[in-house]
Design goal:
mainly alpha; hpI Integrase, Chain A; three-stranded antiparallel sheet; two-stranded parallel ribbon; globular
Length: about 425
């Protein structure tokens, strides 16, 4: 096993995926040993491409699946010198242990494109690595930088490996490319995955943090309406309609438009979106959210409310030239608001709340909105607006039992 091998990217973006094989075959072949044939590698590659293309309707899902399959093929071909057809349960256990402690040459410190354009050609990016060492936003703000020596694979990432690769091997089995699923044959998953007893912890904002955030967004909108009325609307939509960030950004499967706000026969307003799993759903729009929409549209010099079928992008670029594509730009907009709110919290003496907000992500806004609404609305209504597949998921946001449990523990004595 050549542990010093530095991996090369295998799969390009969806736009170039079909041409990736032709592009990469010479470079892949130059790295192979005589223990594995290029024909087997090409066959593996084609199967992987066919599988990944099935997820072209969801950009984020495609990226997640590409990441795990790419790691697996890198390890199987160049380190184990095996085709997918040769992998067994024991191999997969070794692979998972490998992912928990990959060699430093496989770890990067920032996300970079797999391929770059050079002289009108797509070439591999030498800075790309299959694993990325990260640090918290707070540490980054404190001037710290990621260190490959401190790379840790989280439990969430481990669960993704099991889930994604199990789906991939099931597909290969259905295609009669392999005989069995080596992931499902791992009998002692518990040695890799921890089981959590009790209710899952939902990461969300405190009432004080959310108050400072929305007030900050309003201040920014009043200071620079041309730029931050959009910021204010995004914050309102993520909280009040429990939207995922991917449901606000344009992609191949869905472009959020003004006309996706619509009024039914009872004069009730709804918002139509396409979410996780490419599932379409209708979200009930509160009066407060409707007022937020009116304010936002006024800043864009549009009528108070959308007309049926209005195709103007919901979240346009700054110069109004089309919708914002991908989640990165929206994430930066929200983070800018987070940063301003953190500064205000510190100035007002709420240092602990500021430090906790430093760790927050955009998704916490969705969690916070659901957590607040489930206190006052029927859980089935919150479930359907949130797009949860079952009430059990929505139940995780109900704090009544946890609060009662902690209240009963407060008066426990240590000394009698």
């Amino acid at each position: 096993m050549d542990i010093d091998y530095t991996p090369i990217p295998l799969f390009d973006t969806l736009e170039y995926l079909n041409s990736s094989l032709d592009m990469q075959t010479p470079q892949i072949q130059s790295q192979l040993t005589n223990n594995i044939s290029i024909n087997d590698v090409i066959a593996d590659y084609k199967q992987a491409c066919h599988f990944l293309l099935a997820y072209r309707g969801s950009a984020e899902t495609f990226k997640s699946y590409r990441r795990e399959i790419e790691r697996l093929l890198q390890w199987a071909w160049f380190l184990q010198e095996k085709s997918l057809k040769d992998l067994r349960r024991n191999d997969m256990e070794i692979f998972i242990e490998f992912c928990q402690a990959p060699p430093r040459s496989w770890i990067g410190v920032k996300h970079v494109p797999r391929f770059i354009n050079q002289n009108n050609l797509r070439i591999t990016n030498p800075a790309w690595r299959p694993f990325i060492a990260t640090i918290s936003k707070k540490l980054y703000r404190d001037g710290k930088v990621p260190n490959v020596k401190l790379y840790v694979l989280s439990q969430h990432a481990l669960q993704a490996i099991f889930s994604i690769l199990s789906s991939f091997f099931n597909y290969l089995g259905q295609e009669e490319y392999i005989l069995g699923n080596p992931i499902t044959q791992i009998r002692q998953k518990s040695k890799f995955l921890r089981k959590h007893h009790g209710k899952k912890t939902i990461r969300r904002l405190s009432e004080l943090q959310w108050t400072y955030l929305i007030e900050t967004a309003e201040l920014m909108a009043n200071e620079t309406p041309s730029l931050h009325e959009r910021t204010l609307f995004i914050m309102n939509a993520l909280f009040a309609m429990y939207l995922r960030i991917s449901e606000l950004s344009a992609s191949e499967r869905w472009i959020p438009q003004m006309g996706h706000f619509y009024k039914d026969m009872d004069n009730s307003w709804w918002f139509k979106t396409v979410g996780k799993g490419n599932k379409e759903r209708d979200i009930s729009v509160s009066n407060a959210m409707l007022e937020a929409l009116k304010r936002y549209r006024a800043s864009l010099k549009l009528s108070a409310l959308p007309s049926p079928g209005e195709s103007a992008p919901l979240i346009p670029k700054t110069l109004r030239k089309g919708p914002i594509e991908g989640t990165r730009h929206i994430r930066r907009i929200v983070q800018c608001c987070f940063d301003r709110a953190i500064e205000r919290l510190i100035m007002d003496g709420f240092k602990d709340d500021a430090e906790m907000l430093m760790a927050a992500t955009v998704h916490w806004l969705r969690h916070t909105g659901i957590s607040e609404d489930v206190k006052i609305r029927p859980r089935e209504h919150v479930r359907d607006d949130a797009g949860h597949s079952s009430s059990a998921i929505t139940d995780q946001y109900i704090d009544i039992e946890l609060r009662a449990r902690h209240a009963s523990a407060k008066k426990k004595l240590i000394k009698f």
